[in-house]
Amino acid sequence: MSILPASSIADVVISTTTHHYPIAPTSVSDIKYELRSQSPIKKGKAQFHGQTQWHLQPYYNLSKHHGLCRVNAIHIEINGVYTLPKLANAEHVDNKITSFFAAYYENLLTHEKGHETLWYEAGLKIEEALERFPPHYDCQMLNEQIASKVTEIIERYKHKNSEYDHSTEHGKTQGAFVK
What we know:
Blueprint: E1 2-3, E2 11-23, H1 30-38, E3 41-43, E4 46-48, E5 51-65, E6 68-87, H2 95-132, H3 139-167
Parallel strand pairs: 1-5, 2-6
Antiparallel strand pairs: 3-4, 5-6
């Protein structure tokens, strides 16, 4: 865990960036082929059209007062990177292709934003856990307990993200698929 200078504000901050990979379909039916052939997102033998990767980092300060170590200056940073398709030839194709792709893209983005919501929730849970940590006589031991709790919460939310993908069929039930 990282330590920041003392402050009295506890907060969760999320920031995202989006990386696009180009597709250049020449027809609506060509979109599926383009997504499959151009997507850089592979997990084992599976391939996906979109992905969100998250890094959650809690920052806090430990201060000793009257022989007890306490947690303060809590700040949680969550950085997400979306990888999504983009029409590379949007200005050169007919409206059917751009309209179909736009609707698909919005559904895919909705699915990926669901992952963002879960990671934000994880950040709030970590913030809440840190705020409730009781004082301890040993700062090193308190730090170890905090690290264990943070890891537990992150693992729980990794599982929730997997469950989310399973329940939405990786966005299919949210309209993020091409026939």
